[in-house]
Amino acid sequence: MTIPWLDAILVCPACRGELAGRGGGYACEVCARAYPVRYGIPDFRLQPDPYISVDDEIRKIEAFAAPGRSFADMVRAYYVLTPESPPELHSRYIAAMAAAVMRGDGILRKLRAEYPGIGSGDLLDLGCGTGGMSIAASGEFDRVVGVDIALRWLVMGQQRLKEDTVDVPLVCANAEALPFRPGAFDAVVADAVIEHVRSPGMMRDETVRVLRRGGAFFFTTNNRYSILPEPHVRLLGFGLLPRAWMETVARRVRRTPYKARLLSRGELAAVFRGVGRVVLPWFEAGELGDRNEQLRRSWERMSSYAPFRFLVRNVVPQYFILGKRA
Ligand SMILES: [Zn+2]
């Protein structure tokens, strides 16, 4: 697997030194770190996925990614192998994966609406999961790269891209230490990713670093204080718990580890001060179901009353964070 334009933008994520290809992997010419290629995907992770060790992850991939398996079969097999993820939520997760292309399409439309100059060139799909956004972007952007910390999702995503005949290289890496040259991308999108990284501040810095001058980023995230149930554990009021209790409550009620750290509007504004701004999502007609559409209308009515404005701004389910590199 050698893609010249991808190799041309890759650098060592640890020291940003030049890389040399060596025996199906990469090695840094400066710090001598070696980066393997696994299942055709370069693995530049400096830190493992916090939820699974590299060895356990490979064992799992071996079990779900049997040759000839379709993307849908892989996803189903994956959840059979993942009993710690609550079975009552599996169908919801699978539906979200299927809807990700449409969702990605919507996010890219919003990015273009906000920054009319951005809409082609090179896009980084940061936290790409199984590649829904990458598929949506591949028709518009000249080149798209998908990055995720979870090699297992990338292996599924690779199969999905193949089935859709979409040519997007996938790279395994930490959002806090991207293996790309400064200024490599015209746009960076990250849909519901910042609540899963170890350091939102480092993800912000890396995003800005890999953007060209005039390039833009567009993140979405779920609000800690959303008026709706917490999206990972589906529990109402979960965000009001002290952070130290969240894990215990998730394990007790959903028998699942809690895999997110949702930020409030104030926390997001603090992380992105001087770099980007936090905005309330703007919805387009038909984008949400009937029930949500009603909800949106009542919110709009409420937020026209000054006393409610503060409340509404702080309890919406989701925020967008966007910014442009000067
Ligand atoms: Zn290095």
Tell me the layout of helices and strands:
Layout: H1 4-9, E1 19-22, E2 25-28, E3 34-35, E4 37-38, E5 41-42, H2 54-64, H3 71-80, H4 87-114, E6 122-126, H5 132-138, E7 143-148, H6 151-163, E8 170-172, E9 185-191, H7 200-210, E10 211-222, H8 243-254, H9 265-271, E11 277-279, H10 290-303, H11 306-315, E12 318-324
Parallel strand pairs: 6-7, 6-9, 7-8, 9-10
Antiparallel strand pairs: 1-2, 2-3, 4-5, 10-12, 11-12
Helix pairs in contact: 2-3, 3-6, 4-5
The structure holds zinc ion.
Zinc ion binds next to loops.
Structure characterization notes:
There is one protein chain. α2 crosses α3. With 326 residues, the chain is an alpha/beta fold. The relative contact order is 0.11. It starts with a helix and ends with a strand. The strands form three sheets. It has a seven-stranded mixed β-sheet, with helices on both faces. A three-stranded antiparallel β-sheet has the order 1-2-3, with no helix packed on it. β1 and β2 form a beta hairpin. The chain is built from eleven helices and twelve strands. It has a single domain, classed as 3-Layer(aba) Sandwich (Rossmann fold). The chain has helices at 4-9, 54-64, 71-80, 87-114, 132-138, 151-163, 200-210, 243-254, 265-271, 290-303, 306-315; strands at 19-22, 25-28, 34-35, 37-38, 41-42, 122-126, 143-148, 170-172, 185-191, 211-222, 277-279, 318-324.
Radius of gyration: 20 Å
- Helix vs. strand class: alpha/beta
CATH A-level architecture: 3-Layer(aba) Sandwich
Shape assignment:
globular
Question: CATH superfamily name?
Answer: Vaccinia Virus protein VP39
Mean pLDDT: 89
Q: Give the CATH topology.
A: Rossmann fold
Q: Give the % helix.
A: 25-40%
